[in-house]
Design brief:
The protein starts with a helix and ends with a helix. 81% of the residues lie in helices and 0% in strands. The protein has one domain. By secondary structure, the protein is mainly α.
């Protein structure tokens, strides 16, 4: 049973890192669930404080993931139309077979949203789309980085506990 939980935990952590790049999967919550799997493995001591702190960080970073692209759009002069365009572009980008569509579509969505808001000012629409794209990249980097931190914690706990058994 313990090996099944360890394999499940690793799969959830790797799926969480992939989900941090693809907007369809809840990356950080999956990664945290992978870390939580260690709690149920007999013989591995898991610190309640570590689980609690990582849970709070996961919740905060998941909320920030939705706020950062919107703030990037606003900072570069975008409107709510650009924010909605970014979110729609994220969803559309998942389903397109084009490589890296999940990077291109938020940019195009924000640009199209800003053009719908004000079709005369193409420069402002381009700036807002660029801000949205930067916000998306910043949020993605933050999630992937934190996902690797959780993976490192998982590996550290497993190695630390299994070296005692050997």
């Amino acid at each position: 049973m313990e090996y099944i939980l360890l394999i499940l935990g690793i799969c959830l952590l790797i799926g969480g890192i992939i989900g941090s790049i693809l907007p369809a999967l809840p990356g950080l919550p999956l990664s945290w669930l992978g870390l939580l799997c260690l709690f149920f493995v007999p013989g591995i001591e898991t610190n309640y404080w570590l689980l609690g702190i990582t849970l709070v960080l996961t919740i905060v970073l998941s909320i920030l993931d939705y706020l950062i692209p919107a703030k990037g759009t606003k900072m570069f002069g975008g409107s709510n139309y650009g924010i909605w365009g970014t979110n729609i572009g994220l969803v559309v980008g998942i389903f397109l077979p084009i490589p890296f569509a999940f990077l291109i579509c938020p940019f195009l969505g924000a640009f199209i949203g800003e053009l719908i808001y004000n079709s005369q000012d193409k420069k402002r629409a381009l700036n807002a789309a660029f801000g949205s794209f930067l916000g998306f990249l910043a949020g993605t980097f933050m999630k992937v980085f934190y996902g690797f931190i959780l993976l490192g914690i998982f590996i550290w706990i497993v190695i630390d506990n299994y070296t005692i058994w050997i």
